[in-house]
Structure formats: structure tokens, C-alpha cells
Amino acid sequence: MTRQSSIVVGLLMLSAPSISHPQAQQPEPRTSHLPSSPSRNTDTHALIQQMVNAVSSSNLMANVQALQGFGPRYEYSAQQEAAADWIVDELNRRGVKAESEWYAFGAQTFYDLEVISQNRAWVVGTGATILTTTDGGSTWSLQKSPAGGSQALYGVDFVDENTGWVVGYGGLIMKTTDGGKTWVSQNSGVSATLNGISFANERVGLAVGASGTILRTSDGGTTWHASNPVGGATMKEVELVDSSNAWAVGYGGTIIRSTDGGVSWTRQSSGVQANLYAVDFTSSRLGWAVGDYRTVLTTTDGGATWRALPAPPLARERPSARYLYDVCFTDSASGWTADYAGSVLRTTDGGQSWTRIDPLRRYGWIGLGRIKALGSKNLLSCGSHGALAVSADGGATWVRRTPSLPPDVLHTSRNIVVTIPGLVTPERECVLVAHYDSGNNSPGADDNASGTSAMMEAARILTNYQFESTIKLIAVSGEELGMMGSEEYASRARGENRPIIGVVNGDMIAYPLKGDTTRLVVGSYLARNWMVDSALVYNLRYGIGATLDPFVDSTGASDYGPFAMAGYDALEVSEGTPTEIWGGGNPHYHKPTDTVDKLHPGLMRRAAQLMLTTVAELAKPMLVPHKLWTWESPVQQWVDLRALYAVDENNLFAVGDFGTVAKSTNGGQTWTRQIAMTNADLRSVWFIDAKRGSAVGNSGTLVQTSDGGATWNVRSLEPTVNFYGICFTDSSTGTLVGNGGAIYRTTDGGATWVSQIRGPASSLRAVSFTDANTGTIVGSDGIILRTTNGGKWWYRQYSRTTDLLYGVWFTDTNTGTAVGKSGTILRTTDGGHTWMPQ
């Protein structure tokens, strides 16, 4: 759980007192077996009661114990990835189909940006990252930095398209004279971190940093001279308006001015003690500064006097919203500032009033640290987790550009999704969600292996029933970073206008506050909604026996929040009381002592039952299953078949989940199940002839046959990789692809496979070769790769999309088609030099 110290709750105890069921809780089942075909005579309440009774404390605790065993499951960690694999495998082992939905966000935080024209800009940040754009921010390319990968760059300034400087940790200064193609380190003479840099021309420049550091150069950085007119106050930004006039701001309300290009400095009175982070002048007299506590100052006399302006409105109740890290004005009236809650504030009257815009509201708790104008209307903003957004209308609307970042600065993560398709209104979704990541110093038994365990137990039970509407059970990642996984799912659903009729989230559901093994809270965002009232009813109806406290939350500080902010009805279930929620009452919160022995199985069972019954009531179980099939399949209906290969008009092979292989010898009229000797999901299949074939799938699985599928040999080429595509051009030469940019090639008919140069760290989904040398690969984020030398080298092609591409096929060297998510169809007639949407 991401705990927020600014949580504001509304107690509703007068109108809705705590409710507990007076009867004893239903006994636990003696067996995990569930009926797959409920009696036609039972009503829906009886069916749901069966589901509620089936929730097993021992299963819940075992899941928590297993997840705890991975250690801290923080985003970016191998432990989180291992835990995700276990969740998928464990659900599959129990007969529940679970899939990984991958998504990407920035792996680096951007601390500064520089704009020198309508099209040209640079951003810098952690990992010594330097990115540049030549098209106004639509696409970005990575520039090689000689600084070490652990170095952070905090400031950047260019005087033209070729000449610029960056500063950063440990007194680092680097210069380029070719637009960033190459960088040369300069000797700053200091070890203090440098936060800002500004040049008036190619020779005169200033840099500021920690411990009051101020540096000046008059020879383009060949030599730097230090001064310290402010004592120990950390300086955050400096601006040279021209070769004479300069201002710098920093901690403790510090503002200093120079009228001789930084040779000497004079303190100015800001009238505040707040830390100041940014300053901007449109002339030698008119300027603004911003900082902590949403401080905005302005001067009309060159800083001789500064006065405070009204604080811009808060975007959300969270501590990061207090920080205003940048300010930008294009004239005396039009200006913008950005806060670390992901909001842009706009003024048209010089800062007297502000309008709030939330360009990244649906993309996690991403902070915006910099905002700059590329003209009178075009704006660019950057911040944490690779945040990049552009506006072409003065900030009224924004387009997120993070997906256009190079793969080297993107981090991929995944949500784990179980889908139970609805049989009457399948387009309507009911969602149960919990995060499986934890804090970076905690094994996360309560936070949040408990919620994840409840999701897994619900999946185990609900899969055995049929419902009118679709149920989605989701284990999300990135919650501790700021609900990244749930933001991704919720924002995508809203963007696709999917009708989610309700969401229930479980976060920290098993620690008995003050020994109370029945007390839970049920809450909603900003105002009490019908889902809270429904939970009170379900608790009584199904004898769950919980003591429920309703509450109203103003932060959205759990995975229900992104759904609520996207306009969906959502319910939060957690341990505690309205004033002691999300770690407020658990002394082991985010500590190494958050272990399974601190949890109470009875409390966790009650919470899991409440979550399950809420989603089951929403989806409406069916008394009489619909007969949707008029033919019989050789495999169970819940097994997905994912690929088909036709050797000729008679011989067909299909592959799918749990190692499923099916063969037809009469053009598909009848099918026979084959034994592939693996439980891995198979994703792609290719046959050289009617006898010799290969299929690939999850966990690096490769299965091969030389007798038409009568027998299969199985091996794992790379257990951490899921393979999605395979292609042969002749009896000897083949290629297969998978996630993490994996590409393998064989030249001996599949006897041996050699890993080729890795592509970008993307999920590669399909491959098509027209001959042994010429091939194309497609995958996540619209990636298209091309080779003309048999895979010795691959180069990226411009696909015009960031959607996931699932398939590609070339009929000859030049003519090909790629298809993907959201109806994407791309076609090329020139070998991929241009791809056009169809």
C-alpha cells in the first residue's frame, strides 16, 4: 500500500453504523472441490453462498506464505518478476487460465528540459539520460553520454542547435558542440551536485548547486570559477536573461541577483522561507519564482521587491502536490507551472489566477518537474517515471509521449489477468483487483500478499461457475510506485469506453487491528457510493460475519483509486478503521516484520469472502448454463487455442494453453488431441512438411516432432523467456522470437538454436521470413524490426503506432501486413520503409 500522510476520511457512523452479522460464520469447506454444473433448482443467492463457503483459510495463508518467500517484491526487482511467474503458474496449476498483460513506463526520472525552437528540445535525468527530439516532442532519440549510468543529470542548457551543456551529480559538467552526438566532460572544480545551468551566449555561463555553489565561466566552460554569496543554502536554478542580468533561487526562500553576468551577486528579499525551485524572467524587470507550499512570487522591478501571488489550486490531496518545480511565461500574462502530483497550472493574467489541468491524471502518481514553451501555443512537460507530455493549444489538452521513448529508457511491467467471459452481456466487466508488489524493505505479507491471495482464491472458485457479465480478476504491479498497473488498466479501459460496472479492491486485509479479527473498512472515493451500501448488505446476506466501517477517502491511495478517477464505481476493502487504514494501524507496515505469522486467517477469509461475493453479485451467476456450442472440441472450452498451421488442405495443427496440440487430417472436419509432453502455453506452430514441425510457448518452451505429432520432444531454450512466434523458410533455416527482445535462429532444422543479437527489450510477438535472409518481427509498443542478412543485424522501422502488434506476414520481399491491438492493420509495399494504416 502506498500510504499517504494527507489522507482525509469522512466518517459516516451516524448514518451507517458498523455492522456485524450476529450469527456464526459459515464453516470452511472440507475439500476444495467445487461443482462445475450447479443445480438448476438453486437460486442465485444459493449459488453465491456456495462460492462464499468455498473460500479456504488454508489456501489463503498458503498463498501469502509463498509470496512472502520471494522477499521484497518491489518494482524493477527480480523478486517481483519471480512472484509474477509463480502467480501465473499457480493459477494455471489449479485450472485457472491467467495471462500477463505487459505495459511500459519510463525507467528514468527527467529533471530538466531545454527548448530552443519549435521542433528541437532535450531532456535529461537519472541514469545519465540525455534525450532529444527534432519534431516537437512526438519522437525521441537517446544520445550517448560519457557519464556513468548511475549519474543523475539535473540541468541542461543550449545556446543553439549545436552548443549545449548538462550538469549533475558530483559537480559533473559536460559540453557538446554537435547537438549532443558527442559530449566532453569539463572540470567544474567542485564535488557538490549541480542543479541548474544557464548560458547567455557561447562563452558566458553560470551553474548553481548544493551547499550554495555558484560557478561562472567566460570561455564556454574551459575554466569555471566558484563563488558562494549565499552561505550553505542549496541553489536550485539560475537564469541568465542576457550577458549581464541573472537571477538564482534556492532553499529557504533564497533569491540572488547579478547585474554583471554573475561576477558579483546581491541578495533579494523574497518574503518567504519556502524552498524555491525555479525562476523565469521575460525581461530584466518582470519575473516569477515558484517553490514549496505552492508558493508563487512575482516582481516587476527586477527583484527589488517580490510579492506573493495566490496559490494555484490543488490537484489532489497528496503531499507531492505542494511542490511547484518549474515556471514558464511567454509574455506578461501567459504562464504555466507544474506540480509533482502531475498537474499543470495555467494563468492568463500574470499569475493572479490559475486553472488546473491534469495531463497525466490517468498515468499513476507521476510528478511533473519541468514545463517549457516551444512557442506561443506549444508546450512540453517532463517528470518522474519518464513522464513526457506535449500540448499544441496552450496547455488546454495534452498528449502523452512516454510510449514514444526509446526502449532503453522504458521499463516493462505486467498485470496478471484472469478472465471469466460473460455469456449474456460479455462486454460488461466486473473487476476484482489487488497489487502483488511490496515495499522495497518488506516481504509484504499483509501489504499486499493478503489481497493478492484473495484474488487468487476468488479466481479458483469463480472459474467453476458461469456468469451473465464478464469477470476480470487482476493482480497488478507498480502500486508502491503510484498505482502504475491499475492506472494502466483503468485508463486503457476508459480510453476504449469499456463498460466496467464495478470494481472491488483488496489492500492489506489480514492484520487484526488491536486483536479485532472481524473489523474491516469499506470505502469509496470522495463520496459514498452504492458499492459501499451493497457490501453492508452482502455481509449480512451471506453470513460473512465482518464488522464493517464505511469511510470516504479523498486520496485514491490504493488500486481502486485509478478506477474511481477514471469514472468507474469502485470499492476499497481493507483492515482497520477509517482513521487507521493502509498501515495506520499495522506496526509492521513496510517493514521486514510484515510476515505471515502476524496475520489472522479468519480476518483474511472474511475480507476475501466480501470481495468475492461483491464481484459475483455484480456479474450475476447463471442458474442454467447457456449452450453456446453446436460442435465438440477436442479440448476443454476454457482452453485457448492460439495458433493454427495448415501444412496442406488436409493436414492442420492447432496449439494452445497447457501444452495443447490438436491435429486434423481431413481439413478440420475432425480433430485428435496430441500429447506434447509439456504444460506450458504454446503460442505458435510451424511445420516444414506433414511430418516435421515445431511449436513454441511460455517459459522458453520448444516442442518438436518428426512423425506428424505422434510424439513430441520438449526442451526449454531460455526458461525466463516466453516465445510467441516461429517461422521456417526451408527445411533447415528457422527463427523464433519472444519477450525481452529474444531472437533465436537455427540452420539445421531445429536441432540447435543460437541466440542472435537482442532486439529492444520488447515483447516480440511474430516473425515472417520470405527467404533465409529477409525477415520482419513485430511486437509491443508498435515495434517492427527488419533484417536482410539472416538476423546478423536487425534495424527498427517506423510503424506509426504504439499499439501491440500480434501478427505479421509477407507475401514477398516488399509486400507485407501487420496486425495488432485496437484493430490496428498496417501494410507496406516497400519492404517496411513505410508502413501505412489501413
Q: In terms of structural class, how would the helical and strand content be classed?
A: mainly beta
Helix content: 10-25%
Number of domains: 3
Number of distinct helices: 9
Count the strands?
57
CATH-defined fold name of the largest domain: Methylamine Dehydrogenase, Chain H
What is the annotated CATH architecture of the largest domain? 7 Propeller
Ranges where pLDDT stays below 50 over 5 or more residues in a row are: 3-42, 625-632
Measured between the Cα atoms of the first and last residue, the distance is 44 Å
The whole-angstrom Rg is: 30 Å
Largest beta sheet: what is the strand line-up?
1-36-35-37-34-32-33-31-2
Give the averaged pLDDT, no decimals. 88
Q: How much β-strand is present in the residues?
A: 25-35%
What is the CATH C level class of the largest domain, in words? Mainly Beta
Verbal overview:
It is a single chain. This protein has nine helices and 57 strands. The strands form 13 sheets. A nine-stranded mixed beta sheet has the order 1-36-35-37-34-32-33-31-2, with helices on both faces. A four-stranded antiparallel beta sheet has the order 3-4-5-6, with no helix packed on it. The model is unreliable at 3-42 and 625-632 (pLDDT under 50). Helix 4 (445-462) crosses helix 9. The chain has 838 residues and is mainly beta. The chain folds into three domains: 64-96 and 421-619, Zn peptidases (Aminopeptidase); 106-409, YVTN repeat-like/Quinoprotein amine dehydrogenase (Methylamine Dehydrogenase, Chain H, 7 Propeller), CATH 2.130.10; 641-837, YVTN repeat-like/Quinoprotein amine dehydrogenase (Methylamine Dehydrogenase, Chain H, 7 Propeller), CATH 2.130.10.
